[in-house]
Amino acid sequence: MMIVSAAEMRAIDRATSERFGVPSLTLMENAGSAVARFILADYAQAQRIAIICGKGNNGGDGFVVARKLAEAGRAVRVLLLCAPEELRGDAAALFQQLTIRPLVVSEPARLGLTDATEIFSADLLVDALLGTGFRPPVSPLYAAGICKMNESAAPIVAVDIPSGADADAMQPQTGTIARADAVVTFTAPRPAHVFSGLTGGPTVIAPIGSPPEASASNLGLHLSTAGDFASLLEPRARGANKGSYGHVLVIGGSLGKAGAAAMAGFSALRAGAGLATVAAPKSVLATVAGFHPEVMTEPLAETEAGTISLRSLESSLDLLLERKTVVAIGPGISRHPETVEFVRGAVTRYNTPMVLDADALNAFEHATSELTGRGRTLVITPHPGEMSRLTGRSVAGIQADRLEVARSFAREHELIVVLKGHRTLIASPDGTVWVNPTGNPGMATGGTGDVLTGIVAGLIAQHPQHALAATVLAVYLHGLSGDLAAGVIGESSLVATDLVRSLPEGFSAMRAQMSADLRIHA
Question: What's the predicted TM-score (pTM) here?
Answer without folding.
Answer: 0.95
